Automatic annotation (TrEMBL), chain A:
Substrate binds at residue 226. Its EC number is 2.8.5.2. Its main location: periplasm. This is SoxAX cytochrome complex subunit A.
Automatic annotation (TrEMBL), chain B:
SUPFAM superfamilies: Cytochrome c. It comes from the Bacteria. The keyword Signal applies. The keyword Signal applies. Residues 1-19 form the signal peptide. One of its GO terms (molecular function) is heme binding. Keywords: Heme, Iron, Metal-binding, Signal. This is Monoheme cytochrome SoxX (Sulfur oxidation). InterPro entries: Cyt_c-like_dom, Cyt_c-like_dom_sf, Thiosulf_SoxX, Thiosulf_SoxX_II. Residues 88-195 form the Cytochrome c domain. Coiled coil: none annotated.
Amino acid sequence: MVNPQKSIRLALLAGLAVVPLAQAGDELLDGINAYREALADGNPSELVAAEGEELWKMPRGPKNASLEQCDLGLGPGVIKGASAQLPRFFKDTGKVQDLETRLMTCMETLQGIDPQAVVKAGWLKGEKEKMAALVAYVVTASNGHKIRIDMRPPEMKKMYEMGKLAFYYRTGPMDFSCATCHGDQGKRIRMQELPDLRTQAGAASGWGSWPAYRVSNGQFWTMQHRLNDCFRQQRTAEPIYGSDATIALSVYLAATANGGKVVTPGIKR
Amino acid sequence: MKKISTLAFCLFAMPAAWAGSEDTYAEFKAMMDRSFKTTGIAAKHRMYQLDFQKACSQDKQPAKAEMARIEAEQLKTIRYPADGKYFGNWKEGEKIAVSGRGLTWTDKTPHDNGGGCYNCHQMSHHEVSYGTIGPSLLEYGKLRGNADDVVRYTWGKIYNAKAFNACSNMPRNGDAEILTEQQIKDLMAFLFDPASPVNKK
């Protein structure tokens, strides 16, 4: 299977060089924003999504089946708008699941693929690379939809509460929590603007624009990947892929973003 | 790793002002416990909170008295330089301020860290890529002078920011062993030396 991530990377880096690096702050930000707009016409995620579509339809795993009957919450096989309503509570598993853990359930039940094969793989390697492609395909079908998280099930309410506690949980050698970097209006780290994820507007732009293609390293990142890297910057221990803490945080962010617009796959610095 | 001994191992105790039910909080702690793993130098025990971290883990700050209690406790951790010399080399200090590396699970050793000061502070005349989580420190020495109390306060703030603001977003660089005494001296020189780009255009 081709790896479009690597092939587009060079072209994009060439484009980045146009942005003068040693300019005054605001100009630099303007440059990056302009660059983002330029890219928005031809989203480099399209290639990853195309690969994901192929994977969705391809018989795979011990059961040699495709994912076409996968139920992401709107019925078997329905992907249009599905990720705009995730995470959600699923009766069949008895769990609140985000897109990635739900896809793992489908891979297991339909294809016989062991979820640990995804959990244990390195980022953008093996089953995680395939997961990223599937995610790119699925979220493209929610682009432009409204974030609509069903908060009625008590399981969702509980996860929201847990996610909020996790958001403010300060720990580790630097005493950081998510709120240290995302708990105030209009802050940045170096040149990177930080959304205030406590507010509807901030969460809508921060949650609603992921998963995303990252221009700086030419990689498509899922939301689990994004959260993992924020925990790395937070200097905590490493969150286990798909663990409840990551789902709870996702519920907190998505529910706070409710009503906002999905722009996925996003394009990031 | 002297800090482990002072870790609050009360996994199931709730923060004082926590309004939810005790069951929910116990469930939360259990969730955190099963959701993280040791990777490289980032050990699982990093998920267990110190008492003050717990007190500062809400959307509102703790009550005034609690803040004062934490600050008094944190103040006791500050070690001033044994040789009485507060200033090192500002050029080294600048490198430490620029570097945001260290203490993640992709770092090889816990002993070779940057200060990451530019992540949060404007500092010098020539570095335009700075964060805004903390206040601007531009012309720090020029604006404040170098009287003993200013020098001691600044050392203390870098060593343990929580001694002056219980729930400060700024790390405890000395107390948490992020930076060495020598590195803090170099940063002090960077902030105060008239020749450093913090003070000189």
